[in-house]
């Protein structure tokens, strides 16, 4: 099926189309088996049972076709089977599947480390460590900043999501169910408010700095004991929140003053999603460490810790990974970055502006939309009970995602009451217009 699909252009397909209410009979069989045997911890947001995809279109096993506004949680940057990425994967897989980059050398690993060092934000020379996932990049970064500063303490933000392993989970403060029953967490971690302009108002930066400087630094922990601030330059799982423009430069300045490392978790915001390769570039900040994963290899498991050369000086053998930097994943990442740089950054800006303007127009008539924010194809739509109180409408948010799915549009929520629009960066004008049409119809019927 995949090979047949790649011969087609997405433009020639009829989509979205719902032939049978999902899950259809074939989908239901997969759902039933999965439910019986897979871990009970999986979420399974709605019963989408994928057969294949093309561009920003996903087809299920019963022939239903969806427009995808979620990219498998912000991952499928180049779409579901970009021919250049697939060709690079096939070529690499035909050579060798594994040798272990921690202990031996190969071209693809040297090439992707060089490429990431070159494209990372800021002029300082960089070094790169490759991982299998986002959480593992966060985990490694915790070790790196402690090693580099010889300080123990870490600071993260309310609403942050950094992953599921112990260090990353301890930095996470997104939903209590992600931490419940798993404590105790890693000690020596503090959380501070994230500057959410919709909730905290135009002085969000000042409010957060007042807390950091007058409360955190004075009452809880001396800045001289802090190894690093971990921050998502735009908050992802927490609700697709963009900080005020002055926040990250101010945080960088404060970190520098106190000898604290600044770690940008760009696992969701990186790889072109916001219309620049990194969200950091919107704010003119060079963090000490940048973390990548998700879109980096178009869905193949690869993450990266990209650090200033002066920061990444941990000794040989102090950190490693059997699989991290797998040759097939390295090849996928090199092809992905080439496609993003050549084709997708420009498309992301144009389609992102179109999509955001379309949602803003919907906000004129649907009063349940409290806020629309974003850059590129990283757009958050916040749903409220009324615009005065800004009370979160969590139930409506979930209903929107479910009904949109039944009508052929894939959405995903984040935070309590936000729908994130994070489509593949190959999205075209038709996808934007058709997706907005479905969203409009869903909002009309639900409110
Ligand atoms: C900002 C951020 N950091 C870290 C992670 C964890 O990545 P992974 O699921 O690959 O471990 C995620 C995943 O959603 C994320 O959005």
Given the C-alpha coordinates, what overall shape results? globular
Distance between the first and last residues' Cα: 40 Å
* CATH class descriptor name of the largest domain: Alpha Beta
Oligomeric state of shown chains: single chain
- Ligands bound to this protein structure: pyridoxal-5'-phosphate
List low-pLDDT spans.
1-6
The fraction of residues in strands falls at 15-25%
Q: What strand order characterises the main sheet?
A: 4-10-9-8-7-5-6
Largest sheet: 7 strands, mixed
Tally of individual domains: 2
SSE-based structural type = alpha/beta
CATH architecture of the largest domain: 3-Layer(aba) Sandwich
CATH homologous superfamily title of the largest domain: Type I PLP-dependent aspartate aminotransferase-like (Major domain)
Backbone CA Rg: 22 Å
Question: How do you describe this structure in short?
Answer:
The protein is of the alpha/beta class and 447 residues long. The chain is 40% helix and 16% strand. The strands form 3 sheets. It has a 7-stranded mixed sheet with strand order 4-10-9-8-7-5-6, sandwiched between helices. A 4-stranded mixed sheet has the order 1-2-3-13.
What does this structure look like?
The radius of gyration is 22 Å and the shape is globular. It contains 14 helices and 15 strands. The protein starts with a helix and ends with a helix. The strands form 3 sheets. Strands 4-10-9-8-7-5-6 form a 7-stranded mixed β-sheet, sandwiched between helices. A 4-stranded mixed β-sheet has the order 1-2-3-13. A 4-stranded antiparallel β-sheet has the order 11-12-15-14, covered by helices on one side. Helix 5 packs parallel to helix 12. It has 447 residues and is an alpha/beta fold. Helix 11 links the parallel strand 8 and strand 9. Bound molecules: pyridoxal-5'-phosphate. Pyridoxal-5'-phosphate binds next to helix 6.
């Amino acid at each position: 099926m995949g090979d047949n699909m790649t011969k087609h252009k997405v433009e020639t397909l009829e989509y979205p189309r719902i032939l049978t209410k999902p899950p259809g009979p074939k989908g239901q069989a997969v759902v039933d088996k999965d439910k019986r045997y897979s871990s009970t911890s999986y979420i399974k947001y709605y019963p989408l049972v994928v057969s294949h995809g093309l561009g920003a279109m996903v087809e299920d096993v019963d022939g239903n076709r969806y427009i995808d506004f979620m990219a498998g949680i912000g991952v499928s940057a180049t779409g579901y089977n970009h021919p250049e990425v697939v060709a690079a994967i096939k070529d690499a897989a035909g050579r060798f599947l594994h040798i272990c980059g921690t202990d031996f050398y190969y071209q693809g690993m040297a090439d992707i480390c060089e490429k990431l060092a070159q494209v990372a934000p800021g002029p300082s020379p960089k070094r790169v460590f490759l991982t299998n996932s986002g959480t593992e990049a966060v985990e490694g970064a915790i070790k790196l900043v402690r090693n580099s500063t010889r300080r123990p303490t870490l600071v993260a933000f309310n609403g942050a999501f950094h992953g599921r392993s112990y260090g990353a989970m301890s930095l996470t403060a997104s939903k209590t169910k992600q931490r419940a029953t798993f404590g105790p967490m890693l000690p020596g971690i503090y959380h501070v408010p994230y500057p959410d302009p919709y909730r905290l108002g135009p002085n969000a930066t000042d409010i957060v700095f007042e807390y950091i400087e007058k409360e955190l630094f004075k009452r809880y922990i001396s800045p001289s004991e802090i190894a690093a601030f971990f921050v998502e330059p735009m908050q992802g799982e927490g609700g697709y929140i963009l900080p005020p423009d002055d926040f990250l430069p101010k945080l960088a300045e404060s970190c520098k003053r106190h000898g604290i490392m600044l770690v940008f978790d760009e696992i969701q915001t990186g790889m072109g999603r916001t219309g620049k390769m990194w969200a950091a570039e919107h704010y003119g900040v060079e963090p000490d460490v940048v973390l990548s994963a998700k879109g980096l290899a178009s869905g193949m498991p690869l993450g990266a810790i990209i650090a200033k050369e002066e920061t990444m000086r941990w000794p040989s053998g102090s950190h490693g990974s059997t699989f991290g930097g797998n040759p097939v994943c390295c090849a996928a990442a090199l092809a992905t970055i080439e496609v993003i740089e050549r084709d997708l950054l420009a498309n992301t800006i144009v389609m992102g502006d179109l999509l955001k303007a379309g949602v803003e127009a919907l906000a004129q008539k649907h009063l349940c939309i409290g806020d629309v924010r974003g850059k590129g194809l990283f757009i958050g739509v916040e749903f409220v009970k009324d615009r005065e109180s800004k009370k979160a409408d969590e139930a409506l948010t979930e209903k929107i995602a479910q009904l949109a799915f039944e009508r052929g549009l894939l959405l995903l929520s984040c935070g309590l009451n936000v729908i994130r629009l994070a489509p593949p960066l190959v999205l075209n004008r038709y996808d934007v217009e058709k997706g907005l049409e479905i969203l409009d119809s869903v909002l009309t019927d639900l409110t």
